[in-house]
Amino acid sequence: MAVKAKDPAAVVVGRRSGNKGGPATAVMNSKHDGNTDFDAFVKREQTAAAAEGERVDWARERDEWLGRLKELYDQTESFLAEHIKTGGIKVNYRDIELNEENIGSYRARQMILKIGRQEITMTPVGTLLIGAKGRVEVVGPAGRTRLLLVNSEAPGPTIKVAVRIGGEPDPRAVEAPPKEIKWAWKIATSPPTIRYIELTQDSLFQALMEAANG
After folding, report:
1. Measured by CB atoms within 10 angstroms of the end CB, which terminus of the chain is less buried, N or C?
2. What is the pTM of this model?
């Protein structure tokens, strides 16, 4: 009798066979509920992705970005026109491949500036970025600078804080209706205090010298 009472196997078997709502059944139900929740999660994300794909014309986003990139290169050549004309600066382009979520793989041009012994590249990074509609890395032997396609009125990155009361948006926080953004290429200073500098002939010259000489 003492042995039977202390036999863990006998106790566990008795629980599994005699109690349909016991631990084994609870584990199975838990797994089933988990599968159901995951299935719902997958379907929900598929639906959201499909809806977003219908709202956004990703091919148009890509083409607009490539058009803005061309504008930057044309503006750069215009600023350097005198030196290009005299042969002091040589300009070449190379096709590179970019790959972005939703847009997929596509080709973009990298600008290469040859200034005497120095070579400076202007390499596009992409358009689907946080806080900017495009980015180009200006890289030379001694440093790098970032060119960002941002709101022409923005002096630097902006941080938006959402206030919620009891899970609901603060009714006192009235958000102004969005207005059309005028995009412009600007030079971004180094962190932690990032500022946007207007892209002019002088600021471009300074950025190129820093990339070349540090």
Report:
1. N
2. 0.67
